Amino acid sequence: MADKAVKVEGPKGKLEAAIPPGIDVQVDGKTVRVTRSGEERKEKALHGLARKLIANMVEGVSKGFTRVLEINGVGYRAEVRGSDLHIALGYSHPIVYPLPKGVSASVERQIIITLTSADRRLLGETAAAIRGFRPPEPYKGKGVKYREEVIKRKAGKAVGAAGS
Q1: Second label for 31, Cα 20 to 30 Å away, from 50, 66, 132, 146?
Q2: CA–CA distance, 118 with 111 (Å, rounded to integer)
């Protein structure tokens, strides 16, 4: 490991990550051992980071990762055309989002976007970018949200006026 990088290959693809200084990685058969050179706070944090990055790479190239987004709103829809995601979110124009290399998307019923990738970081960045086009608003819940996300709903002004 002279170049201080770890490369992982599997059926879902190839991934590579740089290892921070002070962290050593040894591969013994099917076991990957991550060790640190000292006991300082920063080295301990980097030790855990490097261990988790390698674990995510191994899981990504063997099983892959999936992120599901839901679109809520009248007239809001999405479709995949080639390597582009076309999304209509109530703006005057449809949004064309080119999917990064390594991320694939599928759309069910025009409102459920399923993103899959071997790279967990890239998948999260892509999902966050798509959600950022129209984050869910708290009054009607319209927008793009993660499937497991819970939107805290607020009462509108009509509810507050009726009480006084």
Answers
A1: 66
A2: 23
Sheet-wide strand order for 103-108: 103-108, 112-117, 65-72, 143-146
**Cα 36 to Cα 150: distance, rounded to the nearest angstrom:** 39
Q: What is the pLDDT of residues 119-139, one digit of tens each?
A: 899 999 999 999 999 999 888
3-state secondary structure the chain: CCCCEEEEEECCEEEEEECCCCEEEEEECCEEEEEECCCCHHHHHHHHHHHHHHHHHHHHHHCCEEEEEEEECCCCEEEEECCEEEEECCCCCCEEEECCCCEEEEEECCCEEEEEECCHHHHHHHHHHHHHCCCCCCCCCCEEEECCCCCCCCCCHHHHHHCC
Separation CA 161–CA 28 (nearest Å): 69
pTM of the model: 0.80
Residue 100 pLDDT greater than 60, yes or no: yes
pLDDT of residue 129: 92
Q: List the structure tokens of 121.
A: 């970081």
pLDDT tens digit sequence for 53-63? 888 998 899 89
How far is 128 from 145, CA to CA, in rounded Å?
Answer: 9
Q: How far is CA 19 from the centre of its chain?
A: 21
